[in-house]
């Protein structure tokens, strides 16, 4: 049997938790009823220093649903640390992360898993078909920032990033295990696999639309963006190294050219000193830029190592064929 786990960080979700667990239970019962080769093994809820009585709701629900696991953090650490804590406490072959407010509906879990096995992916992100927050500025700025970081880091997966995702359990737990305070979890996922895809769903953040209250303040959003950049390999730094080397080579070639003119065509030199200035600026500036680029690239490498970027990782995808065969059988009926 293949098992799925769901992980949900909880901070201010008391009014949504009963409905969320009920919807997960429906999917769990449906899978058991149709004799699927996979089951929802557990739903891990991480109480991230909740402020609205969510802990009491979770305690009550855990008495009703034996497969509900509650993890209580000592204080509010934030969505990413809470998510990684939940992942480390999970044991499923596949893990789905869900927000507390039903923005990510459990009914899409099967579609995510189907997408994973049909595209041979280790990670599948759920992305919205339309505006999530019904706030043009927020949705547009978020999208464009991801595009910018994707280009700077040359990481095409950045534009897919979403907290609603399905991950192969072994990869998710390995990523969570090496993540430190400043590690951006989705960037770290890309250190373990490049088999990443996405699928679109009609996702809406009704809590924000109705109350205009966001779980992220401007300061948190800036910190979020900083960690995204900090966890990425800034390959744009290599451009500085290349430009510096190019300027140095240009300076050397120009020296040879000036010497040639001075020896064979001295009458062409009408002004004295300008060639020396250009040569000095080009060579010295180029050497400085080249050395600074090398230092920054080395710092970037050390930063990746401090974040725990692995040299290699083993994965077992053999059971995917069982899920794939079952989905094809269902589709043929």
TrEMBL record:
GO terms for molecular function: glycosyltransferase activity. The keyword Cell membrane applies. The keyword Flavoprotein does not apply. Signal peptide: none annotated. Coiled coil: none annotated. GO terms for biological process: lipopolysaccharide biosynthetic process. Residues 5-171 form the Glycosyltransferase 2-like domain. Gene3D superfamilies: Spore Coat Polysaccharide Biosynthesis Protein SpsA, Chain A. One of its GO terms (cellular component) is plasma membrane. Keywords: Cell membrane, Glycosyltransferase, Lipopolysaccharide biosynthesis, Membrane, Transferase, Transmembrane, Transmembrane helix. This is Glycosyltransferase involved in cell wall biosynthesis. The lineage of its organism: Bacteria, Pseudomonadati, Bacteroidota, Cytophagia, Cytophagales.
């Amino acid at each position: 049997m293949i098992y799925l786990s769901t992980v949900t960080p909880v901070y201010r979700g008391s009014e949504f938790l009963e409905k969320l667990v009920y919807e997960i239970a429906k999917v769990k019962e449906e899978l058991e009823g149709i004799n699927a080769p996979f089951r929802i093994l557990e739903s891990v809820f991480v109480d991230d220093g909740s402020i609205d009585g969510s802990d009491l709701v979770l305690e009550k629900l855990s008495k009703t649903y034996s497969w509900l696991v509650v993890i209580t953090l000592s204080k509010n650490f934030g969505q990413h640390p809470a998510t990684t804590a939940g992942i480390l406490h999970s044991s499923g072959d596949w893990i789905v992360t869900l927000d507390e407010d039903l923005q990510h509906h459990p009914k899409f879990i099967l579609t995510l898993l189907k997408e994973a096995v049909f595209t041979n992916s280790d990670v599948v992100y759920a992305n919205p078909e339309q505006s999530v927050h019904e706030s043009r500025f927020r949705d547009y700025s978020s999208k464009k920032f991801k595009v910018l970081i994707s280009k700077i880091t040359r990481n095409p997966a950045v534009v897919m990033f979403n907290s609603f995702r399905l991950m192969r359990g072994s990869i998710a737990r390995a990523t969570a295990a090496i993540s430190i305070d400043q590690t951006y979890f989705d960037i770290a996922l890309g250190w373990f696999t490049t088999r990443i895809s996405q699928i679109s769903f009609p996702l809406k953040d009704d809590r924000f639309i109705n109350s205009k209250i966001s779980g992220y303040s401007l300061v948190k959003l800036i910190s979020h963006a900083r960690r995204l950049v900090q966890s990425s390999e800034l390959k744009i730094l290599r451009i500085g190294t290349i430009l510096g080397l190019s300027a140095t080579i240009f300076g050397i070639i120009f020296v040879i050219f000036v010497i040639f003119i001075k020896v064979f065509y001295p009458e062409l030199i009408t002004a004295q000193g300008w060639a020396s200035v250009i040569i000095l600026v080009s060579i010295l500036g180029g050497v400085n830029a080249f050395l600074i680029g090398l230092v920054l690239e080395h710092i970037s490498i050390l930063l990746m190592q401090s974040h725990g970027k692995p040299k290699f990782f083993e994965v077992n995808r053999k059971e995917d064929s069982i899920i794939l065969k079952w989905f094809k059988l269902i589709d043929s009926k």
